[in-house]
Prior knowledge:
This protein has 9 helices and no strands. The chain has helices at residues 13-26, 31-35, 40-52, 62-75, 79-86, 96-103, 116-128, 137-146, 149-172.
Amino acid sequence: MQAFIDPPKNIPLYLRIGIWISKIVTGRDLLPGRLLAWYPKAAVSSGIMEALVAHKDKTLDKRILKLVRLRTSFSVACPFCIDMNSYDYDQFGITPKEFAALQGRIAMEAVKTFSSREVIAMEYADLISQTPLMFGQEFIDKLKSSFSEREIVILASTVAQVNYWARLLQALGVPPAGFSDHCKI
């Protein structure tokens, strides 16, 4: 399976360095960086955004941020995002039953191992991923009573980042990269 377009033949040196670093970090030669070389400004800004994404914070642990990225990936049905964000999900303490709930195969309410903060964060991810965006006052009150303003910004920016990549990658027809050894796509 290929993307809708091919990467350019000539990629600027500064982008080749970024692509090389990405390959070292991920262990894969990722197609998105090469495709974005058609418009270097998009490649650079996307790389900067990716580098700034929170993977842990002093009050938001790796698990809750992984749950948010996974829930968003499934919510927007992005094969590449699902593949990448499903990689080693069990290393974050996410059980197969929780993973099934993230996928929507079982009801979120049927899984009693999610904390109340995790459930609210995943609900927030769903709401941010919908069009149009609509947040009821009851949900906003629940969100604000469970998370600080800083945490809300981190959650919103994490979900927005996955949404950005999902829309961009699907618009270019980018297939999964083969990260996940747990998720059948």
